[in-house]
Design a protein that fits this description.
220 residues, alpha/beta, 8 helices, binds D-xylitol-5-phosphate, binds zinc ion
């Protein structure tokens, strides 16, 4: 079975000090760093381009998980691979078919995953279970940090975990000390948290607490 991993999401960091924020995640014991790429079209917000991923690559040795919330990921994916993404996540709701994208990401020697919005049925991930390294189930509507967790995604986590026992199954959005263990109990092993970790008084303490609670829930 896969291990519990905790990833701070850089979207919630102070954009005046992003390199420090990357180093802070590493110091806090994070397993990887999550970067949200939004194109102002797939979601109504604009965030990070390849230069931010390049900056993160220079600032930390942590693996970089790059979440493409973009209508046309095929146009952008190479730039993010060149910038140093270790894992690239593409939405099944985007215009480009995930199959060719996953092949391109793997051909570059990186990990590849698909993402499902909260309202997308879990079975939309089924064709990709054997093609991907990770499946991300959004637990908020993508576009902004600091939103409330959508409880109705929990059964989708459990049924996908039953169909894909060995895959890295991640959750993103509204992940807190309360919702993280609920997701782990349902079968998620990768927890992505922005506000809860970057706005904490001490990220290391908060991250260790989240990891311990998820590990206990995961084994229960
Ligand atoms: C939302 C992003 C998330 C976001 C999570 O569209 O994909 O990664 O940073 O932020 P929190 O943890 O604050 O909900
Ligand atoms: Zn994200």
């Amino acid at each position: 079975m896969p291990n519990i991993q905790i990833l701070p999401s850089l979207l919630a960091a102070d954009f005046g000090h992003l390199a420090d924020a990357c180093r802070a995640a590493e110091r806090a014991g994070a397993d990887a760093l999550h970067l949200d790429v939004m194109d102002g079209h797939f979601v109504p917000n604009l965030t990070m381009g390849p230069d931010i991923v390049r900056m993160a690559r220079r600032s930390t040795a942590l693996p970089l998980s790059v979440h493409l919330m973009c209508s046309r990921p095929a146009v952008l994916v190479d730039a993010f691979l060149e910038a140093g993404a270790d894992l690239v996540l593409v939405h099944v709701e985007a215009h480009d078919d995930p199959g060719a994208l996953l092949e391109r990401i793997h051909a570059a020697g990186r990990r590849a995953g698909v993402v499902l919005n909260p309202e997308t049925p879990g079975h939309a991930a089924d064709p990709w279970i054997s093609e991907t390294d990770e499946i991300l189930l959004m637990t908020v509507h993508p576009g902004f940090g600091g939103q409330s967790f959508l409880e109705h995604v929990l059964p989708k986590i459990a049924s996908l975990r039953a169909r894909a026992p060995a895959i890295d199954l991640s959750v993103d959005g509204g992940i807190t000390q309360t919702t993280a263990p609920a997701c782990a109990r349902a079968g998620a092993n990768v927890l992505i948290a922005g506000t809860a970790l970057y706005r904490a008084a001490d990220m290391r303490v908060e991250l260790e607490r989240m990891r311990a609670a998820c590990a206990a829930a995961w084994e229960s």
